[in-house]
Amino acid sequence: MPQSLSDIVELETPNGRTVRVRAVTHPRARRLSLTIGAGGPRVSAPEGTHPATVRAFLREHAGWLQKKLRELELTGRKLAPPVPGRAETFTFRGVQLPVIWQHDRFPRIAVAPGRLDFALDLGHDDALRIARRTMRAFLLREMRREVARLSSYFALKIGKQPSALRFQPMRTLWGSLSADGRMNLDLALMLAPPEALEYVVVHGMSHLWVRNHGPRFWARVAAVDPDFEAQRDWLNRYGHAVKHELSRWIGEDID
Questions:
Q1: What proportions of the chain, in percent to the nearest 5, are helix, strand and coil?
Q2: Label partner for 183 (CA 20 to 30 A): which of 1, 8, 44, 70?
Q3: Torsion of CA 201, 34, 7, 126, to 10 degrees
Q4: Do the bridges between strand 164-168 and strand 95-103 make them parallel or antiparallel, or are there none, so unpaired?
Q5: What would you measure as the largest C-alpha separation in the chain, in angstroms?
Q6: How many CA atoms, within 13 angstroms, populate the side-chain half-sphere of residue 130?
Q7: 3-class DSSP state for residue 173?
């Protein structure tokens, strides 16, 4: 009989630091994954995974975890969720903006020159949940508008268009394309520079022609986005921080 996972697993990193990792099972998980979100390090596992397998996976990735925690410390990024009403910043389209809280019965977010205006009932007992729901709705609205524009524009160059678009937080991927042409994109891309989002859209739409990542595929990407390697490198280098910031603001309800 498979053993259940304990809530907390202690892991020693290569530099001797003991890190507490939250272990959870996820009914849709197909493999083990390690992330750092608003609640700290977390390992997700398919149902029925033996605890010993989880511990071995964590030991194998201890170096990666040490590196990512150090990056968060060096950049001053917070692990705790934002507190409505307190000084905060939010990165929107690659620009870090101060959050200007405003007290109002009706929650809303607007981007103003040099700031992000965030209105909600600051005295509400459930202000954080309302803030997270408002932020998620704001990012979805902005991303739908921007990706609809990009997909129409790039369709003229690529020659095909996705059959549908879906936006959601993703733990590891930036996007995916289903067999019937539906393109899924990570909501965290709205925090990245516009060029990074453009690259991921081109990448996904190029898969409408070539499903693998062979030379023909990359030639198609380069024909539309000659600067794609720089954007891919940016996502590889800073993508973890972008995903982490999104999880701080909307929670960890990630598919």
A1: 40, 25, 35
A2: 44
A3: -30
A4: unpaired
A5: 58
A6: 19
A7: coil
Instruction: Give per-residue burial for 71-97: e unless 16+ CB within 10 Å, then b.
Output: bbeeeeeebebbebbeebebbbbbeeb
Phi, psi of 107 (to 5 degrees): -70, 140
Q: What is the mean pLDDT of residues 196-207?
A: 97
CA pseudo-torsion sign 215, 216, 222, 225: negative
Strands (E), 87-172: 89-92, 95-103, 108-112, 115-120, 164-168
Query: Distance (Å, rounded) from C-alpha 208 to C-alpha 164?
Result: 12
Calpha distance 92→177 (Å, rounded) = 25
- Residue written as tokens 């539906």? 182
pLDDT 10s digits, 37-64: 766 788 888 988 998 999 999 999 999 8
Angle between helices 228-250 and 194-206 (to 10 degrees): 110
Q: Are 242 and 91 in contact (CB under 8 A)?
A: yes
* Amino acid symbol at 73: E
Give the Å distances, CA to CA, from 247 to 157, 188, 251.
Answer: 34, 9, 5
DSSP assignment, residue 234? H
Whether pTM exceeds 0.70? yes
> Beta-carbon neighbour count of residue 202 at 10 Å?
23
Strand partners for 118: 101, 109
pLDDT tier, 29 (very low <50, low <70, confident <90, very high otherwise): confident
**Res. 3: pLDDT tops 50:** no
Give the β-pairing of 40-46 and 18-26: parallel
Residue 168 pairs in a beta bridge with: 186
